[in-house]
Amino acid sequence: MQVLESPLGDTYLWEKLKSELTVEEQKWMQYCVFEGKTIVEIAEQENVTTDTVDSWREGVRKKLLVAVEKRGGKGNSVTDRCDRI
Fold it and tell me: What's this model's pTM, rounded to 2 decimal places?
């Protein structure tokens, strides 16, 4: 699966994060962030439970927070967005 351009507004951060995501986490990014699908829609499409999709989301969230901290950013728009995903 190929995920489109950076949804984070920081190409370096996005490339770093993308390299650490599992295939399932990349699917969540593609479907939710880029295509605007809900967890229920993703679960139906992937034939998994909503809890499974939510675990993909949580994996992305945790990895994003770590990547932002390593990049030296705290309390910026990226971490604010992370609180909403």
Answer: 0.71
